[in-house]
Prior knowledge:
single chain, 421 residues, alpha/beta, Rossmann fold, 2 domains, eight-stranded mixed β-sheet, six-stranded mixed β-sheet, 14 strands, 40% helix, binds adenosine-5'-diphosphate, binds magnesium ion
Amino acid sequence: xxxxxxxxxxxxxxxxxxxxxxxxxxxxxxxxxxxxxxxxxxxxxxxxxxxxxxxxxxxxxxxxxxxxxxxxxxxxxxxxxxxxxxxxxxxxxxxxxxxxxxxxxxxxxxxxxxxxxxxxxxxxxxxxxxxxxxxxxxxxxxxxxxxxxxxxxxxxxxxxxxxxxxxxxxxxxxxxxxxxxxxxxxxxxxxxxxxxxxxxxxxxxxxxxxxxxxxxxxxxxxxxxxxxxxxxxxxxxxxxxxxxxxxxxxxxxxxxxxxxxxxxxxxxxxxxxxxxxxxxxxxxxxxxxxxxxxxxxxxxxxxxxxxxxxxxxxxxxxxxxxxxxxxxxxxxxxxxxxxxxxxxxxxxxxxxxxxxxxxxxxxxxxxxxxxxxxxxxxxxxxxxxxxxxxxxxxxxxxxxxxxxxxxxxxxxxxxxxxxxx
Length: 421
Ligand SMILES: Nc1ncnc2c1ncn2[C@@H]1O[C@H](COP(=O)(O)OP(=O)(O)O)[C@@H](O)[C@H]1O
Ligand SMILES: [Mg+2]
């Protein structure tokens, strides 16, 4: 029996799921079904009954729920793996397969590995685990495809999160976006700065541009936000930096469909080389998906003892939620090196934060204030300043080794599909 939305040809990311378990089907529907960028093909039934009706043509990833204790099911999976392996007819293997099992035993795990399933998960499967696994096996499969390496680089996503208020998230996000914009080997890159601090955002102010993201117009229909509408809602800075920012309404508690954010993420990640997110302090239902989709996660904090403590707590919370996903790294902003004072030194900070400590960014209020007041990058106020030099080290990619764009796009869409927690 086939349920759920049919897969359109246009959807480049197609997830095929087979399960006889209602609860798991529901998890899958809630995880992948909401994103318009993902075609979900959900087949209800056991593998031995339904394997023949599985259509994995064009599938990005196949998820199969098997009863690993039942030999008939394992044989059906073996046959399915063979079929998928020969499916493309171009000498390449088909989509990666993730097996979901109920009871887990060592011998069955070996058997699954021998069949060359890309990965397996034992129930209960958390949505985040499912998304992460699908995204990872997709990336891995595409990396090993010869055609993939010929394609261009993936969208790099850098996210700045505050440990405390006023630590400098917006300042660092804006400056990093500027650096990335100017990091192309042959001129500018395509870079987009996205202000997700919908209530107290200052990106547009710091760059002296008009915010154009109209959440009201998108309203209850996130699918309205397509490439064309995004272009209307983008602000362009004189430097060439694209900015997505909404006008502030400080007295209004915004409530909008979290899918709007998911959709926004999908769009910017597939249309820009670099995306920089300025995050609010509050944790929203969409926060996890932004973090999960990020290549670099910077937690911005200050030198005071309480703010170091907050940073450490945030690192722990993120590690717990994202598991082996992106690693949060702490950046201490407005750092003043004092040789003869009782203030915290770099060593103290490193000790307090532990292995998540990344770097200190120097304090230079006059420089930052002038850049903000004029709506220009720091480098334009003072070339070769220490803040810019430090950010360049942290954020601008050196060399290559990035996975192929198509794989990255598909993986990003999978990750971003997870807007609920
Ligand atoms: N490295 C720095 N040196 C000096 N002042 C800074 C630095 N980074 C940020 N600031 C100042 O700190 C204040 C808060 O910065 P902002 O980026 O708006 O923080 P957030 O977005 O975390 O609230 C601003 O007045 C900004 O000028
Ligand atoms: Mg801010």
